[in-house]
Amino acid sequence: MTFKSTALSLLVLAGLVLAGCGKGPETAAGPAAPGKKLTVGFAQEGAENAWRAANTGSFQAEAKKRGIDLKFTEAQGKEENQISAVKSFIAQHVDAIVIAPVVETGWEPVLKEARDANIPVILSDRSIKVDDDKLYACFVGSDFKKEGQMIAQWLIQHTGGKGRILELVGTPGSAPANDRHNAFADAIKGTNLTIIDSQSGDFKRDGGKQVMEAFLKKYKKGDFDIVYSHNDDMAIGAIQAIEEAGLKPGTDILIISIDGLKEAVQAIVDGKINCVVECNPLAGPVVFDAVAKVVAGQTVPRISYNPDQLFDQTNAAAAVASRQY
User: Average pLDDT of the chain?
Assistant: First the structure.
């Protein structure tokens, strides 16, 4: 082989590497065979509440609609179960893997295995922290930081920036728990709103009830004014505890939450919750759009956020009937 032809070959190879690994806001993977039925592995975080059930249902319904062979696992809130599921998907040579991560850290080894197998990974709902962001193709979900900011801004406006807050925290180490706490705490800086206690209810209704019961033993009426819950299920559990204690949620204690469950929007109408910021779980269509493009070798945005809206007494009654989850 001549020097000229060798140099040309090296340039072509370099171009292919850069096309697959180039930095920037978009990413791409190698194309799948045309007309091939897609097989996608979905490592779901769990089945702990109504939001998660709606999220899973969205994926399953959309996969059926598109003729996708969806291999579904549910991790019961344990990262080790998700990692085992991803390893199984890799062994089955699926076309793509979707993960709704339990927590943000600990993903590098298995994602490297997926990359070595040339299987693209799409993150849904929750993000992760890795040194090499090329270990996954893209993220599709809600902006948890914006949700925390939105609920804080509403609270500042409706309290004049004054009040003592008890915080019901989601699963420790998870992206929504981290982001919803940090963004909210940052947003209320400089006001007279203060978080006096934070405890995890693990995003579960019974967890929210148990934490609220403990709060009500620790703090008497007048020690706090507001309950900020990282999700609706914990808020609804807290409401049960508050009512059992002879207090009126939404009146004696201001209740704010995130998710947008129909039950929570109805609770606004009933006067038991004061404000809810939506976190849309119906991600199946958007995620599978991204999967199809990535598998076909097309570029997709690195991050895609679903639009979320806010509900309070001004719009809850008009919205509740149309809620899908």
Answer: 90
